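Obj: model holo form, ligand = pyridoxal-5'-phosphate.
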Amino acid sequence: MTRLIPYGHQSIRNDDVKAVVEVLRSDFLTQGPQAKKFEDAICKYTGAKYAVVVSSGTAALHIAALAAGIKKGDEVITSPITFAASANCVLYCGGKPVFADIQPDTININPEEIKKQVTKKTRAIIPVHFAGYPCNLQEIRHIAKRYHLIVIEDACHALGAEYKSNGKWLKVGSCKHSDMTVFSFHPVKHITTGEGGAITTNSRRLYEKLKALKNHGMYKDSVTAQKGPWYYEIRELGFNYRITDFQCALGITQLNKINGFLKRRGELAGRYNRTFSDLADYVGLPHCNDKNKKHAWHLYVLRLKSKNLRQNKKRIFEKLRARNVGVQVHYIPVFYHPYHKRTLRCNAMNFPNSIRYYKEAMSIPLYECLSNTQQEKVIKTIKAVLKDSRK
Ligand SMILES: *Cc1c(COP(=O)(O)O)cnc(C)c1O
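Output (holo structure tokens):
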């Protein structure tokens, strides 16, 4: 029996294990020195001034939306082709997520569609760098400025992605064209802490607010110090969204290896691109040809061309899964989920590109420790199943 090759998997090495064990044997399992060290490493890597590490990407989105001031009645524009958390963070604050359709090629939110969705109630935009391919941030920032909106990048797919701005390469997360950027360290993402997330920003005000919100809304500063060494104040309603010190130690050793991780993902994606371009009648390839963008290759999504395929997507998925190729769909459009249908009542007909994408999309295995032999097997199996399904 061969084992299922999943669509994503973590890469854990001896230095990761050693770092975690060292913290487990130290005095602090949480609230020790590792969180600050991890935050400093994230700042150094992304180029942002500040970073706040938290217990998940979802927690990061939640407090980013709160720090942006999202409240009841506010509208926030995001992509329907994303993990539900990009929209749920707005709902947590009592606000309303409003979707703008994607570009059919990049699968990123379409700036022209954002403009159409802006109303008097719009407060923010949450663009998602889908699969690790950067959105057009300069254009999104331009729209945001015109309507006085906050921009929170959902970069859960895009650690290490880059884009050119005024002739200079910038990392996603530098926040040069946004207010905050959110990352996730779930095991399928570029680096992992088990569960974990981070927010980067260049604003001192947002940084202080995020730090308080992840820790019960608690403040200890020069004002509280005058009342005594025990004294602190809860000035707003916060949460316990802290991440443990052993997770942060893992985050640091993982981030040390990011360049190698990105290089390997790029190699694997390149091989898929070369192989599947020969099957252009049956599958479409991910868009990656903008010279001003560097793909971080979190996902590799093929597009099934149903007009040349006899079998439907469900059947093709069943066949591939039966042969241990862990294909997946990223994502079911958020507006299709029963909860969101009930709560948001948005008309799916307004998002033709998202619906078309959902019909065609098939993510295939892509992760740093996918071996050449395993990739060979994935390619052979997909080729065989497609051949079998063609008209
Ligand atoms: C993974 C992911 C999240 C949520 O991150 P968690 O760490 O799993 O909470 C949010 N948005 C996108 C686009 C993601 O891929």
